[in-house]
Design the sequence.
């Protein structure tokens, strides 16, 4: 990321001003269009409350789902949820940039909040293009003139170059909201060379994404230790030439993971500090669960084993920063949740600054009742993966361009 300190809410006077606030309210949705989890909405409450308390009229814009998918719904339930969380009525308009939306925006008073409908109902929001293209969209041209400031709080959408993310900052003075600021500050610790040792614990099912992260942190010498778990660890064991038995090899092949073996081998040969599990919890064809050493696995791998939990926990204890992403096993089944739980516990008890990503780990932290000990839980899915892989996030780039353009530069 660039060295420029991006402007925040501290750098603007919003009293009596109209603010367009981009959030990421994208939430899991049930069969009756009900929201199954409100954590993404909750995460934006401090920003919205602060803007209201400081006397702004706040218009909130978000996406929900993607066109064609079952979670692509109106934001009406989000407005109800936000009202409950804020303890104040949130106005909602079934429109984004049409005459009714514009009328409601114009009439909004300081201290009031209006939620626009799903911004991806607009075709142009679903196209990724550079900021100079997005500033010319109808969305930006129609709405920008109604606002004094644009605030981006949607870290989880920061990897998208869409009009509501990169278009408005080109034409309005723009700053980060409190959630965006918190994410950027916490995640920047990962790339701060003064804080070490740094231990990465990477697992889960998104193996190509995890491999991109490893390539980036190895290339930039960010990690002192990379402890692999989950399917990712199986890839590295195969790359080391270990035979994981027929059922696991078939599974890896079906998932397209074996094609990544040359990349994994290259990383190992480069001397990267990558650790693999010593043992696994497996299940055989009869359904028997057992612990097997990594070099002699016969059953289907479902979790890391007790020796791995012990040795990884010791390494985690030494860290000053622990970054954890993806579960260590198939934790949807309680029989295979122990590895993930114990590594999360070790990280939270280590005294290190801990950074967690992904829904699975968040669920485990809740289950352990240790949320108060967490350094940071990122709200980002794809955005976090992109950030850790060293990719430039279009949302931050756009805020930087805007800061220069409107004289809100900090450093
Ligand atoms: N050894 C393994 N074999 C098969 N699947 C595994 C293994 N280890 C972990 N998984 C699977 O990985 C999946 C989670 O990986 P993912 O990388 O998507 O995590 P996440 O980012 O926390 O998920 P989310 O997208 O919900 O936030 C789980 O469904 C889990 O069952
Ligand atoms: O859930 C997410 O990762 C964000 O809301 C971004 O959604 P997208 O991948 O559909 O752009």
Sequence:
């Amino acid at each position: 990321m660039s060295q420029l300190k991006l402007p925040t809410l501290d750098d603007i006077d919003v009293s009596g001003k109209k603010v367009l606030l981009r959030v990421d309210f994208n939430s899991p949705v049930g069969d009756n269009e009900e929201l199954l989890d409100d954590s993404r909405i909750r995460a934006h409450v401090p920003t919205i409350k602060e803007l209201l308390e400081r006397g702004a009229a706040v218009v909130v814009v978000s996406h929900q789902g993607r066109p064609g998918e079952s979670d692509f719904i109106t934001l009406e339930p989000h407005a109800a949820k936000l009202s409950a969380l804020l303890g104040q009525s949130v106005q909602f308009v079934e429109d984004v940039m049409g005459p009714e939306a514009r009328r409601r925006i114009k009439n909004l008073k300081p201290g009031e909040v209006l939620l626009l409908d799903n911004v991806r109902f607009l075709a142009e929001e679903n196209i990724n293009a550079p900021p100079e293209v997005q500033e010319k969209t109808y969305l930006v041209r129609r709405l920008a003139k109604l606002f004094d400031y644009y605030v981006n709080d949607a870290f989880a959408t920061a990897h998208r170059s869409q009009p509501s993310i990169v278009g408005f900052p080109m034409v309005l003075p723009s700053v980060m909201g409190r959630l965006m600021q918190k994410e950027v500050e916490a995640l920047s610790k990962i790339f701060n060379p003064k804080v070490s040792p740094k231990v990465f614990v990477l697992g889960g099912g998104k193996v190509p994404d995890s491999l991109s992260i490893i390539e980036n942190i190895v290339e930039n010498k960010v990690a002192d230790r990379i402890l692999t778990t989950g399917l990712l660890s199986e890839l590295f064991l195969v790359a080391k030439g270990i035979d994981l038995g027929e059922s696991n090899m078939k599974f890896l092949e079906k998932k397209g993971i074996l094609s990544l073996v040359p990349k994994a081998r290259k990383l190992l040969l480069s001397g990267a500090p990558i650790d693999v599990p010593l043992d696994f919890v497996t299940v055989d064809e009869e359904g028997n669960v057992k612990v097997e050493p990594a070099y002699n696995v016969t059953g289907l791998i479902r979790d890391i084993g007790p020796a791995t939990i012990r040795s990884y926990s010791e390494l985690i204890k030494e860290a000053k920063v622990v970054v954890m992403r993806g579960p260590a096993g198939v934790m949807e089944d309680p029989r295979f949740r122990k590895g993930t739980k114990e590594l999360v516990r070790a990280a939270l008890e280590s005294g290190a600054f801990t950074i967690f990503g992904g829904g699975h780990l968040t669920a485990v932290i809740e289950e352990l009742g240790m949320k108060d000990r967490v350094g940071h839980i990122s709200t980002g899915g794809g955005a976090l993966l992109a950030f850790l892989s060293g990719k430039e996030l279009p949302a931050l780039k756009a805020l930087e361009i805007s800061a220069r353009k409107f004289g809100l530069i900090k450093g």
